[in-house]
């Protein structure tokens, strides 16, 4: 195989961008050979914009096409596991858009199928893992330089979405359409980084407020408290109604503290490296109120770097290029598809904690979560929703 022949299923908001980049040769190891969408206007767009490629209405027709080696799944969230499983069973490599699914039970089945097909490459579009500051934070933690984590806190409230955003279509802001709000739609990348850096918690308490200052059925204001087997704790705060918002990640550890702050096209990581580990200092110190001396290391990504990484090139292309090289050359995946269940576990647990008004111990009771989710979907489908539509 000289190039990976891609089929993109779902050419709406994200899928059409992936299809365009591949069709324009932005990945030298990739060729766009097929696309699929149930919407006629998207198929018309594809015929006009994508050149020579097969266009399908039914995703199984694309999956079974002999000129497709790998599938990118970019449909609405609920369909991700179903389509990815079908593609894997048809012996196609799969790159899935985030989130891996809406509920972990379906994603666990997907992971099981993927693990039964070790000859196939299964990835997920966690493009935030390509951010050089998060990569450096991961290196500091994995190497032991940061020491044992005590606390991880992330405030990310710069997802401002007005009512007009939710009014674009009846599926937005609903349990039946999106499967959730800010946690399932905006924050899968950050929840992935959250667990990628600190590991999965053992206990979660969630406070997910629905329809704060918006006419929607799902959460748009969230605070999650996490506890870990090591004794560490964490807080994850997010919303879509704050402006101006904040994006600040702090990790406190035995050897110092990491702070990552992000504004539009401006990012900074500060590493406060303690001269003496806090645990060691505490055993030898005799002063009443001392201060542990530390050095300060700053890393930044500049405007030009970010304009290229986020705009001109786009972080998603990094994932696609890595995925192609994994198929052709055995390159290690930046974001293995099986990792998709972890951030989703945190959001599912936060929902369930809110609905039951209690702490949730992990592993999650997946059947209980699904039954509670289905109650909300059924209520939505059997009554006039908050927008006055069926």
Overview of the structural elements:
The protein has 390 residues and is of the alpha/beta class. It folds into 2 domains: 4-126 and 313-336, NAD(P)-binding Rossmann-like Domain (Rossmann fold, 3-Layer(aba) Sandwich), CATH 3.40.50.720; 129-302 and 342-381, Dihydrodipicolinate Reductase, domain 2, CATH 3.30.360.10. It contains 14 helices and 15 strands. A 9-stranded mixed sheet has the order 14-13-12-11-7-10-9-8-15. A 6-stranded parallel sheet has the order 3-2-1-4-5-6, with helices on both faces. Strand 1 (4-9), helix 1 and strand 2 (30-36) form a beta-alpha-beta unit. Helix 5 packs antiparallel against helix 13 (340-356). The protein is globular, with a radius of gyration of 22 Å. It starts with a strand and ends in a 9-residue tail after the last helix. Residues 385-390 have low confidence and may be disordered.
Quick structural overview:
This protein is of the alpha/beta class and about 400 residues long. The protein is built from 14 helices and 15 strands. The chain has two domains: about 5-125 and about 315-335, NAD(P)-binding Rossmann-like Domain (Rossmann fold, 3-Layer(aba) Sandwich); about 130-300 and about 340-380, Dihydrodipicolinate Reductase, domain 2 (2-Layer Sandwich), CATH 3.30.360.10.
